[in-house]
# Entry
Amino acid sequence: MALAPADWLLMDVASPISTTPFNLVAAIDAALDAAVADLPGGVALAGLLSPGQPPVTRERGALEPRTREAILEAVAGVPDGPISTGGQGRAGWRGYRAAVGDGRTGFALVQAAEAGGDGRSEAAVLVLVRAALLAADRRRSDRLEQLLTTARRVAESLDLDAILADIVQDAARLVGADSGDMLLWDKDRDRLRVVAVWNFPPEMLGFELQFGEGLSSQAILAKRTLSVDDYGSYPQRAKALDHYDFGGVLCSPLIVRGEAIGALNVHARGRAHVFGSDDADLLAAFAGHAAIAIDNARRYENEVRLGRVAAETNRELARSLTVQGRLVEQVLMDGGPNGIAAVLAEHLDRNVVIQDHLHRVIAGAAPDGGTAWHSLLEASRGNADPFSVAVRVGREVVGHLLLSSDDALGVIDRALVDIATTGVALEFAKIRAATVVEERLRGEAITDLLAGTYASEESISVRAARLGHDLSEERELLVVDATVSGDGGDSATVSPHDMQRRHLDVVRERLATRASRCIADLHAGLIVVLASRTRQGSGGARELAAELRGALEAVAGPGNVTIAIADPCRRPDDYASAFGYARNALELMVKVGRRGAIVSTADLGPYALLIRASSRDELQAFARRALESLIDYDIDHGAELVSTLRAYLEEDRVQRRAAGRCHVHVNTVVYRLRRIEELLGVSLANPTIVFDLTLAFRILDVIDGPAVPQGPGARA
# Structure
């Protein structure tokens, strides 16, 4: 509720801010009573005049409004001292005027037909001035006491909302305002937000203004107290507040360490009002207390937050030390990757998977000790991308540590992951050291096996069994020659030995994903693969050879990988001869210019010995003499004599089986064979002729591949 003008100016004892009874209205009435009683009858008028404020008056008798306004206007225009207004007779007014201070003036007048009331009027004015001075002093005392009370609350309380609300209420009441509010500046959003109010509807709390609107923005920018007498005509007013009908508005910025953070406002409702300099100083003092309260609250909140962070950090550090100790214990006590994964899963509350460099699972663990970590593998195979950390030994990636990535890892958790990764690297290093020893022993065993330099089949079988290999199991033997061309790539910077090791690693990686339990090692400068026939898949040795060639050509280059497939080995004594035949087949392929081919020793048979004894040119000449007339005839007539002859020889010269292979009637085969004998001038019943023709086909297979040349260029 707005204060009455007299209560605002004179600070009636009814104000809740006053603590000591003092009734200025009663003092004025007493002064008027004394003046009237001392004068012979008449009407009396006394009061206080203040710049920019309505006059405060008390009268005895009845005065018309026009008469009162005329008297007040006359009193305002005369100097201090005795005053006399009006003409002769009862219409005259006599009295006294005296200054109170702060631009205020006290006066007392009586209507009298004759002189004699001037002294009594002067006494009444003195009483009035004394009362006004006492009220001003009491007002200053109350303001000071309220400021001290506010300062104590700011120092003692951390309830920021309550303190700010009390500051707004006390400031508004002490300056005689009808309402008040406080706003804070959100610099990130560039908006002002109301955080405390007095004598406003509840919805005003939390109300926001764009920074730049209203008197608050200007006071914040100016960093000083500003006022407007009529807010409704203020050009930069906040139009969203027009319905509150503000008149005079006083605004003081909240300043903390030289920076304005908000503003404190008080308002006069529905009336123009001039706030004095004392009001501005008082509001600035309250704004200072509010700024201190806000700063204290923010500091306290920051200290509490820092305390929580410090406590949480200490807890995390303690947990980290515990986990580090357990991880080190797993490494020292040979807990292996499984132990490390279990510790990490328990303390990070995440699924953990450890893989080798080929992404094969080495270990896995879930927080509850169950098998939920399998879902991490399914996620990695799908679209999900689990958190993955490379495990390195030196510069080489030897494995991967996978974590379920539901939440981001904190700094300490990430440090734990790094420690666990180091532990896994140590485990892999131990495994690698054991593998080096095992590989050396395996290499020695394979060397003896392929060279036949072992004491007995039983002794070499026992050595192989210790390494996890069963030589009683039937195996295919593949011999691989991978030669890097010298026209670029790594061949210029990598030694031949290191290149062979790299090729061997490629072969082992391919075997690990396709044919587990296969043996691969280096022997006599070649890569030797002992593949279990039951673990190769449906494609057999030739399909496995094709896959290995493709993987190696990615490193060695196209056409630089030659593979020979030996006969199956069923016992230890089979390996030495099988390796010898396969190596001979490789040398034969290189000799006849077939590097990059895949050849089976079973395809060559004993013909390999004859082929190796001759040069490429001699072999080509022999094959041309034996088959050239048939090849030319097929080209000229579109016949199929060469393919029919091959089928006939490979089917042991059984005409019916040759016809089935060529998908023709047996009579057609008989006709073609007769035509072949005519063109060659030989008899196919002669064993020598049959041997020569069979050898010619083998030579063509070795030199040009299984298919006999066809087409326009074949005759050359």
Remarks:
- The longest helix spans residues 277-332.
